[in-house]
């Protein structure tokens, strides 16, 4: 009896190895495809359809995108929402960086406590947070009563609530923890002896902040900015809750196309524009980073 | 000849909570000196360095620099620079930026910084690597960058916190030679921290042995090796055979010691302990003689182990009266030691001058 050729003997286990590789590659690609890419593609597809007499017409067209640029006040609302989100992002990044540096400078034991207290809002329901903000900003709210009691004003300021300022304040307050966390985590990764070394070489605390802390915190600052921008730009509830009629932001337009006008194709097109805007923000944030800053 | 020392740690004490880590530490550092603070881990040697650097406060004593108290001088104003154990190179700055950082924060003009950085990189042998990032360097190169960064501001004193401990054996020997020659060339005082006694002996002008937050002994490497004064120094610097006993009489520096193995002779360095006090007799393995044909009354021991170590042979012997002590004897391997057998009985001996008498702690 002839011995079996070696290739035949090693065949079956080899084939099983290939099958296993295929399964893993399939899962690696398939899971994101199934749960992320397909849902997005579905509304991208819908955005190229149109609505006629309450019925969706399954013909590909750019009409919805044309409407964004030419009809009504879509573009104008888009631009004002962009400006609002940019402002909220700017103030939040400044505040969150200051807070994160403050926490970073504490002793390790107190750091956790302070960080947790800033993260507490993340454990609370949105509805509680938004009504607390309303009760603070309202006509008979904490802020007005306080200013009245101090004699700084003699009539409550009405513009505190149901104004663009109110939306600005509410969004900034709501999304501040989302900026603090990534910035703090980036600072937390700075080796302790870097600060010792910079002081040893003659740097003042302010120079150490400029040369060590902020450059190494940059990935976190970029992430915090992206989080804040994405969350504010897409928020369609907060502007309504504290902005009243003033609060007509792009998120609310998208929402109204789906929820009120029942124009899903136009709503989808606006949603695609929203998505493209946030992806652009992510790309911009990525551009500000140098490879050397990430270790 | 009393010259004012460059740096003087006067009676420094330090505690962490209820743990006393430093107790009455008194150290002077002279200009241009290579001083090593040697001790096992937990001895307080790193704390001493951190106190000099300003990273750690003190609970008692004074830290004087050229007669000026440094208590109120913050880290960034102290005229010292530190080479950290893991170098602490800023990974987001390239080599030139790292090295020039001390000048940058002092507001020096860019051209001056660039010239000086090139100069210092040349000194440490890294002339062409200014544009590299720390992650692109080898361990020895990082070490040199850390040194360059520390010397560029021309400090009066450089503090080195076990800088060679992360390097492999060959590179370490090479860096030791480099450190020593650099220190000679620059004429800056080095305060070097290590737990490696061989490294300390090879590099230092003077060694301070620290143990449990106190100074055990200080002196030139050769002095410490030849004349240890405490059992700790005797055991920590090189190998030593320690035999416990009681001092019976002394004639000048030569003492008679009663041990379990009989009456032995030793030489004392410094004040002679009072007769009757417990002492230790310390003999280096290379100072013990072995004789196959013992004279009457000789000290007899049995060979327990023979270890060939290349250039040396280490013979371990056991004396019946000293069951807890393996006597170690070192011999050059080229001599007539091939006839040795385990279990063989040999007469051991030493010159009185080679046995140091230490007060037992």
Automatic annotation (TrEMBL), chain A:
Gene Ontology annotations of biological process type: transmembrane transport
Main location: membrane
InterPro entries the UniProt entry points to: MetI-like, MetI-like_sf
Record-annotated ABC transmembrane type-1 domain positions: 78-285
Location in or out of the cell: Cell membrane
One Gene Ontology cellular component: plasma membrane
Membrane topology: Multi-pass membrane protein
CDD domains: TM_PBP2 (cd06261)
Transmembrane segments: 22-49, 82-105, 112-133, 166-187, 220-242, 262-289
Keywords, alphabetical: Cell membrane, Membrane, Transmembrane, Transmembrane helix, Transport
Superkingdom, natural source: Bacteria
UniProt similarity note: Belongs to the binding-protein-dependent transport system permease family. CysTW subfamily.
PANTHER family: INNER MEMBRANE ABC TRANSPORTER PERMEASE PROTEIN YDCU-RELATED, INNER MEMBRANE ABC TRANSPORTER PERMEASE PROTEIN YDCU-RELATED-RELATED
Protein name stated in the entry: Spermidine/putrescine transport system permease protein
């Amino acid at each position: 009896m002839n011995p079996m050729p070696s290739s035949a003997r090693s065949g079956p286990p080899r084939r099983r190895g290939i099958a296993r590789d295929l399964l893993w590659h399939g899962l690696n690609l398939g899971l994101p495809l199934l749960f992320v890419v397909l849902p997005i593609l579905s509304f991208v597809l819908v955005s190229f359809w149109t609505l006629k007499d309450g019925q969706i017409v399954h013909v590909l067209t750019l009409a919805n995108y044309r409407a964004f640029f030419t009809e009504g006040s879509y573009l104008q609302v888009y631009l004002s929402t962009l400006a609002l989100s940019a402002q909220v992002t700017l103030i939040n990044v400044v505040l969150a960086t200051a807070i994160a540096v403050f926490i970073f400078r504490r002793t390790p034991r107190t750091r956790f406590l302070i960080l947790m207290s800033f993260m507490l809002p993340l454990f609370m329901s949105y509805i509680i947070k938004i009504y607390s903000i309303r009760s603070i900003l309202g006509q008979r709210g904490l802020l007005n009563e306080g200013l009245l009691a101090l004699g700084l004003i003699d009539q409550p300021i009405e513009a505190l609530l149901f104004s663009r300022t109110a939306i600005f304040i509410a969004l900034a307050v709501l999304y501040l923890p989302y900026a603090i966390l990534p910035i703090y985590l980036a600072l937390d990764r700075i080796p302790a002896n870097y600060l010792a070394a910079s002081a040893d070489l003659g740097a003042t605390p302010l120079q150490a902040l400029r040369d060590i802390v902020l450059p190494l915190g940059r990935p976190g600052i970029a992430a915090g900015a992206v989080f804040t921008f994405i969350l504010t730009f897409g928020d369609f509830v907060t502007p309504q809750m504290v902005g009243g009629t003033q609060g007509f932001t792009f998120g609310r337009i998208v929402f109204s196309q789906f929820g009120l006008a029942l124009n899903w194709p136009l709503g989808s097109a606006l949603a695609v524009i929203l998505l493209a805007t946030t992806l652009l923000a992510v790309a911009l944030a990525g551009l500000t980073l140098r490879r050397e800053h990430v270790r | 000849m009393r010259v004012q020392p460059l740096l003087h740690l006067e009676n420094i004490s330090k505690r962490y909570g209820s743990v006393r880590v430093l107790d009455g530490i008194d150290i002077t550092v002279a200009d241009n000196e290579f001083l090593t603070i040697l001790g096992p881990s937990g001895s307080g040697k790193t704390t001493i360095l951190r106190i000099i650097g300003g990273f750690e406060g003190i609970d008692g004593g004074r830290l004087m620099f050229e007669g000026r108290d440094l208590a109120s001088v913050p880290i960034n104003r102290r005229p010292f620079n530190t080479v950290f154990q893991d170098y602490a190179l800023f990974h987001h700055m390239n080599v030139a930026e790292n090295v020039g950082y001390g000048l940058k924060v002092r507001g020096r003009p860019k051209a001056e910084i660039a010239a000086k950085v090139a100069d210092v990189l040349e000194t440490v042998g890294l002339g062409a690597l200014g544009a590299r990032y720390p992650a692109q360097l080898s361990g020895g190169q990082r070490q040199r960058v850390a040194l360059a960064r520390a010397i560029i501001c021309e400090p009066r004193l450089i503090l080195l916190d076990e800088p060679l401990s992360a390097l492999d054996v060959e590179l370490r020997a090479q860096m030791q030679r480099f450190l020593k020659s650099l220190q000679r060339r620059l004429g800056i005082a080095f305060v070097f921290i290590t737990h490696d006694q061989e490294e300390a002996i090879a590099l230092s002008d003077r060694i301070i042995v620290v143990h449990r937050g106190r100074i055990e002994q200080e002196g030139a490497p050769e002095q410490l090796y030849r004349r240890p004064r405490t059992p700790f120094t005797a055991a920590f610097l090189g190998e030593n055979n320690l035999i416990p006993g009681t001092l019976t009489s002394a004639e000048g520096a030569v003492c008679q010691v009663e041990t379990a193995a009989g009456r032995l002779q030793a030489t004392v360095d410094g004040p002679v302990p009072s007769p009757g006090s417990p002492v230790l007799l310390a003999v280096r393995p290379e100072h013990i003689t072995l004789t196959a044909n013992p004279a009457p009354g000789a000290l007899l021991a049995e060979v327990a182990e023979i270890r060939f170590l290349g250039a040396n042979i280490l013979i371990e012997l056991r004396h019946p009266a000293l069951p807890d002590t393996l006597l170690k004897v070192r011999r050059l391997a080229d001599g007539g030691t091939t006839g040795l057998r385990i279990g063989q009985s040999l007469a051991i001996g030493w010159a009185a001058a080679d046995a140091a008498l230490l007060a037992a702690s």
